C-alpha cells in the first residue's frame, strides 16, 4: 500500500480520534483494533474501523458519520476484504501499520511519467482510458505536464482540484466551503461529491465528473460489443451483428463470434457498416488519403483484421483508415463523424437474432441501397395499378353517360319538350297557333 496513504491514515488516527471503547484517545501504538471496535474523531464527524462490504467481508476504512449512508472516504483493502473472524488492524511500537488477514476493475494513479491517469483492468483486457493519449503528447499544446517530478493531488474544501501534472477542475458549487470527496465509482467515472443537507438529511451530491458520456469509459461492455446511452434508458450493452454474449451476468467479458473468417482469397469477406460507431485503439496500422474500397482490401489481406474505422478528417482534407485486430471499448455516438466496418463472411450473417444483439444498427450502404430500390419498385407498381383502375372507371362512366343521353334524345320528356330553358315560355307550332286563332282572326 502507498506509504503516503498510510501517513494520511496515521495522521487521522493520531490527531483526530478518540476510542469508542477502551483504547487511548490519542494513539493506537502498541495495540490493535478488532472488527467490533471503531475510532471516532473528537468532533464526531468521522469514524475509523472495519466497514462491512458483504457477508462476513470487511475493509478497514474511514467514513463520515453525518451522511445517511455512512459514506466511506478512504478504504485500505477495498480489493481484498477480510473476514470477520480474527481480523485486526495493528499499530506496532515502531509505528508500522499492519492489517491482518485486491479485485476492483478501475484504478486512479500516477504513471511512470507522473501523469494522473485512469486505468481499466478487466478479465480479458487492460486499458488506459483517461486522459486521451494526445493530451499528454509533448508535441501538442495541452494543459497536462508529463515532465513534473512529484505526485500529489489536492481537492480543496472550496471545490477546487489541482494535481502535480497540472490537471485542474472546479466543482459546480465552487466557493462553498463544505465536506467534499473525490470518488472513483464502480462504473469507472471519477466524480466529486459535496455533502449537503437536503430535506432535513445530509446526503452527497455530484458536483463534477470526468465523463458526461458514460460509454466513453472503457471496459463497460467488453470486447466485440457496443455501448449506447440516452437519457431515457441509460447505458446499454449489445453484441455486434453475428456475435453472442459470453456471460449474461458480466458484460465485461464481452461477446464472441458465431462465424469464422477465412483467409482464402477465393472466399473473400464482406463488411457491415455501423454508422457513427467508434472503437478505441488496437490499430494494426493507419492509412491516410485512402478510398473506402482500398481500405476494405487492406483489411481483407490481413487474417487478424476484425474490421476498420473509416473517418474523414477535416483538418487534413481526406479520409483515414484504421484496420483493427481487436474490437474493444466500442460506443455509438451521433457526434462521432466516422463509421466502423465490421468484417463478416462473404455469405453474410444468419437471419436469426438473439436478444443481446443490437437491433438499431444499420447495415452496409450496399444493402441499404438495395432495400431502398426494392421499396421504390413496389411503390411504382402500386401507383400503376391505381391509375389503371381509375382510368377504367372513368371510361365506363363516360360510356354509360353517353348511352343515357342517346336514349333520352330518342324519347324526349313531353313536359320538358314544351319549354325553353332560357325563358320558361311554352313553344307552339304554326298549325297550333292557326287553329287556336281560327285562321288568325281578331276576336
From TrEMBL:
GO terms for biological process: recognition of pollen. Keywords: Disulfide bond, Glycoprotein, Kinase, Membrane, Receptor, Signal, Transferase, Transmembrane, Transmembrane helix. Pfam families: S_locus_glycop. Residues 1-22 form the signal peptide. Residues 24-156 form the Bulb-type lectin domain. InterPro entries: Bulb-type_lectin_dom, Bulb-type_lectin_dom_sf, Pan_app, S_locus_glycoprot_dom. The keyword Protein biosynthesis does not apply. One of its GO terms (cellular component) is membrane. SMART domains: PAN_AP. CDD domains: EGF (cd00053), PAN_AP_plant (cd01098). It is found in: Membrane. The chain crosses the membrane at residues 382-405. GO terms for molecular function: kinase activity. This is Receptor protein kinase zmpk1. It comes from Quercus suber. The gene is PK1_7.
